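Re: that chain you flagged

S.,

Sorry for the slow reply, it's been a week of failed gels. I finally had a moment to sit down with the sequence you sent. For the record, here it is as I used it:
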Amino acid sequence: MTAQALIAPDHAWMDVGSPEDVPLRGSRCVATPTGDIAIFKAGDGSLFALRDLCPHKKGPLSQGIVHGHSVTCPLHNWVIDLKTGHPTGADAGKACTPTVPVLVEQGRIFIPAER
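Prediction finished late last night. Pasting the structure tokens below so you have them in one place:
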């Protein structure tokens, strides 16, 4: 199963805040017309975005624990790779969470605006 970005590449961008708004090894949830997007900041400062739903039982990934470039779902401990949206470990290959492109420009975080 392949994780897919939610928005086509020819999209407009939506400003969702500054990198400082996302805690280190944490997340910030952004409401969009088609559902919540979780913006994650890894320990090395890298930013990632995923649909805020675990592929297992739809748990809120934004409430999970960020470690390395992964987040652990707070409901059933599935570990989701922040780069790909794929579960890792024993749950690898079972499902995936859509990834969302992230752009950081002039001190602001942008994700695709939905049409």
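What I noticed first: The longest strand covers residues 13-17.

Talk soon,
D.
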